Each structure stands twice: as structure tokens, then as C-alpha cells.
Amino acid sequence: MGLMLLGYLSGSWLGALWVCRLAGVGDPRQQGSGNPGFSNVLRVHGRRLAAATLLLDAAKGMPALWLAMMLGMPPWAQGMVGLAVLLGHSFPPWHRFRGGKAVASAFGVLLVLTPGVALCCAALWALLAWRVRTAAVASLASAGVAPLASLWLAPDYVLVIVAFTALVLVRHLLNIRRLGSGDEHAL
């Protein structure tokens, strides 16, 4: 339970807000899509700040996950710590429970728990973002592929990754509606 709380609290620290504050640029929640995450920072403030946001959001939950692994926790318990990181990013108490969509944080969690799955999903995300120019499409497809990749690369983590995927899909409901109406933001 203590590691889940640590995961939640570390996840609730939104990298985009700190990166933009330190760079002296506007709050990403007030521009573009209004999302405090990598894709919006990329659209609004460029590659350099987006890369810093990605790095921070991916890395913030890693210490709690490494600790869970070092303590020999079973995969489902490690997954609960990882899910707490994603919930913290999505619903941070310091920002009225309005956070990001958890894609970069999910990448970081997967990178610790199942590196092969993380790299497959990241490669798919990059390819789709480059070809389709829509972060939501890339994120949804990558999240959808994660459980399938885990069947092959990390079968002990399949149920955990299904939970991660469900959270990412739920966090993207508005994007799915905008994709259907043709109003989704491009990269």
C-alpha cells in the first residue's frame, strides 16, 4: 500500500507544468488542447520542451517501480504500483484531479516492468505520429497493441497491461469523439 501511495504521489507531479514554468512559457493547460502532456507541449512550445516533458513524465514513477521489483513483489503488485503512477498523472490532487492522459507515464512504467513491450509501443507511436500527424491516433493504437505485445513478450504482465490500456483509452474518450467528428488536434 505504501508503494502505491508513493507511485500515486510521484505520478501526480506533472512534468509539463514544471518544464513550461522553468522555461518561462505559458501554462500548457491554457493553450492548444489544454492537456498537460507531451503532445500538447510539442504543439505549443516545440520539440525541446516536449522532450523534457516526455523524459520527466516517463521517469517520475520509476523509483517506486524499481523499489517494488527490488522487494520481489509479484507482477500484479508491481502493476498496482504502476497503475497508481498512471492514476496520479491522470488525477493529481494538486490540480483539482485534472491531469494528463498518462501515455508518457505509461511508457515509463512499461519501460521498467516490460521493456520489450514499451519499445514496441514507442516504435508504433512514433511511426503513427509521423505518418498520421495525430497524437491521439498514435496513443490509442499503441495502447491497444500493448496487451497483444505483452502476450508475446511479458505474459506475466498481461492483466496489468490491460488495466493500463483501459485507463489510457478512458482518458482519450474526448479525443475519440473529436477524431470521429474530424476536429482532433494535429501534431
TrEMBL record:
One Pfam family it belongs to: G3P_acyltransf
Signal sequence extent: none
Keywords for this protein: Acyltransferase, Cell membrane, Lipid biosynthesis, Lipid metabolism, Membrane, Phospholipid biosynthesis, Phospholipid metabolism, Transferase, Transmembrane, Transmembrane helix
GO biological process per UniProt: phospholipid biosynthetic process
Known catalytic reactions: an acyl phosphate + sn-glycerol 3-phosphate = a 1-acyl-sn-glycero-3-phosphate + phosphate
The protein's annotated pathway: Lipid metabolism; phospholipid metabolism
This protein's record includes keyword Lipid biosynthesis: yes
Membrane topology, record value: Multi-pass membrane protein
The enzyme's E.C. designation: 2.3.1.275
Sequence intervals crossing the membrane: 64-87, 107-130, 150-170
Cellular component terms (Gene Ontology): plasma membrane
Compartmental location: Cell membrane
GO MF terms, alphabetically ordered: acyl-phosphate glycerol-3-phosphate acyltransferase activity
Protein's UniProt keywords contain Acyltransferase: yes
Function: Catalyzes the transfer of an acyl group from acyl-phosphate (acyl-PO(4)) to glycerol-3-phosphate (G3P) to form lysophosphatidic acid (LPA). This enzyme utilizes acyl-phosphate as fatty acyl donor, but not acyl-CoA or acyl-ACP.
Assigned protein family: Belongs to the PlsY family.
NCBIfam families per the UniProt record, alphabetical: glycerol-3-phosphate 1-O-acyltransferase PlsY (TIGR00023)
Assembly, per entry: Probably interacts with PlsX.
Protein name: Glycerol-3-phosphate acyltransferase
Origin species: Billgrantia tianxiuensis
Gene (UniProt): plsY
